[in-house]
Structure formats: structure tokens, C-alpha cells
Task: structure prediction
Amino acid sequence: MSSTGAPTIKDVAREAGVSLGTVSKVINGKPVGEDYRRRVEEAIERLGYQVNTYARSLKTNKTNCVALLMPSLQHPFYAILTDEITACLMRRGYRSLLMITNFDPKAEQKCFDLVQQNKADGVIALTYAADLEVDASIPIVTIDRHLGPSVPCISSDNYAGGQLAAEKLLSLGCRKLLFVRVGPDVHGEPDKRGAGFESLCRDSGTEYAMLSLRDEEAPEAFCRYLDAHIQNSKLEFDGIFCNTDGLAVQVLDHLRARGIHAPEDVQVIGYDGMVHYASRRPFCSTIVQPIADMAESAVDILLNPPEDAPRPTNLCLPIRYLPGGTTKD
Amino acid sequence: MSSTGAPTIKDVAREAGVSLGTVSKVINGKPVGEDYRRRVEEAIERLGYQVNTYARSLKTNKTNCVALLMPSLQHPFYAILTDEITACLMRRGYRSLLMITNFDPKAEQKCFDLVQQNKADGVIALTYAADLEVDASIPIVTIDRHLGPSVPCISSDNYAGGQLAAEKLLSLGCRKLLFVRVGPDVHGEPDKRGAGFESLCRDSGTEYAMLSLRDEEAPEAFCRYLDAHIQNSKLEFDGIFCNTDGLAVQVLDHLRARGIHAPEDVQVIGYDGMVHYASRRPFCSTIVQPIADMAESAVDILLNPPEDAPRPTNLCLPIRYLPGGTTKD
DNA sequence: TTGTAAGCGTTATCAC
DNA sequence: GTGATAACGCTTACAA
Result:
């Protein structure tokens, strides 16, 4: 028995009356004489031997661990993404080392250091820090954020999503549209939601406005904007696209407080595809991100980088529209 | 440089012109001559040395990793719990190894094996399998589930929560109460919600009924029950306590479909304290679990088992009531 | 104080 | 095909 009390291959070797090397071969499925194999397997069974992955990893430089950097799990998008990625990793024999950064740039940087110390086989990161220093020695895949030309970024097709939202609103009879966004001001994939929206409005000759709110002053600033655009208790926009479902829900609250209701007075579409966890009902009409596919793709590109072809630097997965009661469909 | 390319203490020692042991002492904060320390620290800085935790753990039998067994992160209760536990672990210098079991007993068992192989320093587990075989060699703390007398179980005060729900409904004018539960039939802490509810009803001489639904047939069975207890489109109960918020939301849907509305026709209270992630509004009136405290306690008991006093076998944390529009307060 | 060397549990490279 | 043996990078007696 070892210092920890758990049996080691040494114990197994003694129990089976063979050498260390033979035990190792059996464990790793290398060719070994039939009776030897049986004796070893029986010894393993008898002793309840379990491989010590730390010793193995020290030797092989392969940990079967992937680090997952997430800002928080309090928001369902991150939680579901983490769920899917972890499940996907486990299916492939990997473990996931979860790190929560709370949107703190310092914490994000510190996590990248931890990842190196812990010799993870790779990192899947959803970060916000503007200037992350990342070591190129360990494979990285990001979600929704460009870290550099050598780091693949997985996202939903934000641009197409923005276009689809505008398209839907128009086809549902809207004439004057508004785009509202909140969130950190780092340049990221999700910015394309507004860009796609705007492109479609412009191309179709639709009247529209773009409103960008800073996190700190979001509710107040939005309310001021709202009041400035209400005449005789009538909102001058009849279609609103919000860059997240969360924002859409808050916008709907503020509208309701002013006697303006969706979908009668104004139609509202969010982005993410969040649904209530039990009823599975969406909180609003929304553009659905293919979270499971994003997870699968992230893991895939991280673990099986295409041999011949260069890894994609940006992979956009198809979105879809889901009516949720805040539009007239 | 080592095989992996990353510098090792050997490289640092050479660079600093000192011995391995000295470097190790500096890294671990052991007493070392002032100029030696400086030289080592400079070398570390220059080389960008990072300790290899795998080598260290192999030697010290301490991994600074805690395994987290969760059924899923798609449900916000588990997600938030995971968030809080992970944050708490990181604050104490631990990493969390996340394992998702999807409520599958086989997966749960397999995860416990993985935990041993990965030499985690401990396990925090929220499981459902009826007969888990757990190795006593590694410290375990469970959430909401009793695994045996030697395994501490953290939970909210489910019994008091059930009582509080009944109490609230009565004080809000209800005369005939109903308790509804769904969920797996393993014996667990959450069962006490119904028990507490029932005890208060009985002690106060209140009329009440208890309804337990199996997961598979939940919606249909509940609707049948509902229809059997509606006379002239009037429900014979005026207060309902559901064992989760998720169930409460579904129950409210079924009631609404029959023209019965909360809180006018019937008052409904759920359990968990789930709120919408953006608006922070509860989905229904509810008994709030102190998730952050539960996380903190779980980590605390796992990592710092009380020296003298025996570890508690069951720790119930105080709940509170939160009105959410489905009751008349 | 500092350096040396043994050993943690594996895998991998050799001779046999 | 099998069994010694040398690493992997680190900590820790112990010797100097």
C-alpha cells in the first residue's frame, strides 16, 4: 500500500506476481500474454486498484482535463453552456475544471495562470477582459470573443440573428424599429447583432434607431429615452430588438409601467432563446442560440483540431426564431 | 526546459545558480537567505516559471481540487449552487472538478470512481442514486441527501419551510389547503417539506390534502386530480403549496387553463426561491433556500472539519418567505 | 542556511 | 513477451 492507503501498480504487481511493466501494459491495453493478463486483472479486482491520474499525467503530459472559464453560472445562458460543454467533455473521457471569474478581468487573467499550473489539456473561455495575456502553449477556444487570429472563436450567427429579428418585425407589420443593447463595451461577437439588424433596416429602407446603454446607467438612461419618445402615451416605435432576452424582459417591464403593452402596442424580440426552466416557455419572442451545438463544436475544435485544414478562426452556428408572446405571431 | 517546454524548478535553480531544494523552499515560503531568495525570485520571473501542480500533488497527496457532482446545470437551483460553491472554493485556493450526472444513477457511481482516480481532496455531491457505494477514504459532503451517518448533509430547513408555507397560506385567509409534490422517490431531505406542511395543518386543525406525483405521469395525473376537485368551475382548495417553484409554475398554468387564477381564486406558494435572472422577480410566492449559505457551509465542513466536535450529520439552514404575486400579500 | 538524494505512482526504453 | 530501470517535476529528510 502507498502512503495514501490506496493500492498502486506496485501492489498489483506483487499480488499478481509479475513486474511493474506488465501491469502497466495491462492497464493501457498493450499486448500481454493471456494468462499474465488474467492474473493482473484479478489482482486489480481483488485490490480495488484505481489508476492515479496525477502520476500518469506527470509522466504523459496529458491530464484529460479541460479548463472552463465562465463569468458566472447565475445567468442561464452560461449555466446551460457549461452544462452542455461538461457533458460533452465527459462523453469523451475528459473532466472539466470549472473556473468562475465574475466578469472580473483580474480574475480572468489569474485563471489563465491557474490553467497552466494545472496542466489542463485545453481551455474553453468566455471572457471579457480587454487585454488577456494568454500562453500559446495550451490550446484555447473561446465563445463569443476574439482573442487573436490563432484562437478559434465559437458563436451563434449573431449577424444573421440581428437580420432575422429585423426581418421578423417588418414582416409582422412594424414600420419604425428600435435596437437596444446593454453590456460591456469590449469588442466581441455579440456586437454583430446590432450590425446585422442595422444592415437589414438600411437595405430595406426602414426607419430605425440604435440605442446603446452602459451597464451602470442602463435602467435610468433607457427610461429617459423612452419618455422622450412617447407622445400622447404612444411610443413612436412599433418594433424593438434587444440584444439579450434579459434586456427584453426589463424593457417590457418599463413599457408596461407606461401603459404600453406587447404585442399590441409594440412588438419586442430578444436574443438568446432563454426559456423558463420548468414550463419551457420563452420569456419573450427571441432569436435562439444553438447552445448544444456551440458546446459540441467548441469541444470538437479544441480536442480534434483539423489536421490538414487550418482551424477556423470564427465559427458561426445557425440561429432560429422562436415566438414568445411579445410579437403578433 | 522540460519535455513540455515549460520551465521547471531545475531550470530556475540553474538560472539562479542555486540548488533545487532552495528553489522549492522559496516557492513554498520556507526560510531562505535574503539574497538567495531574491536571485530565485528573479529567475522565476525571468523564466515565467509556474509550479506543476501534478508533480506537487503526486508528492504531497494534496490536489487542491474538490469534485462537484451535480445532476444538471439546466435547472437554476443547481446552477446557482454550483456557481456559489465554485466561487467559494476558488476563494480558498481550491479548484472545482465539475461532473454532470444527468440524474443517472450509473453516471453518479462512475463519477465517484473518477473522483478517486483524480485524487480530489473532497467531494460535494447532489445525487439521487438509491444505493451509492462510496469510498470512505475521501471526505464527502452531500446536499439534500443522506448517504450515511458519517456523511454530513447540508440542506435548507425543509421542515420549517413546509410549516412556514402552511402558516402563510392560513394567515392569508386560506381554509382548505393542498400540498403537491413531484420528483424522484428516493428518500431525501426535501421530503420534509411535505412533512412540515402536514404537521402544521394537523396541529392547527386545518383541512388539507396531500398529492404526490410520479415524474412520468405528473401533468396528466395532476390534471385529473384537478378536474375531480373542481365543482361549478370552483376549486375546492383555496391554498396550494408545491414542493418546487417549477411545479408551482406548471400548476398555475393548469389552473389558468381552467379559468382559475392566483391569487384571487387560489393562493399558491412554491419552494426554492427562484427568480428571473434579469428582472430578479420571483416566478411565484415562494420559500427561499439560502443557496449561498448552503454553499459556504458545504465547503466549510468539507475543508475544515471541526476538530473536537463531531461533524454534524445534518445541517439545516434557515429559509424565508418571499411573496411573488401568487398570494394576497 | 544550503545542497543532495530519495521517492511519490506512473510510463517507456531498454536488454533479456 | 517480460522484467528491470530511468525518467516526469516536485517535496522533504538528511547531510554538509
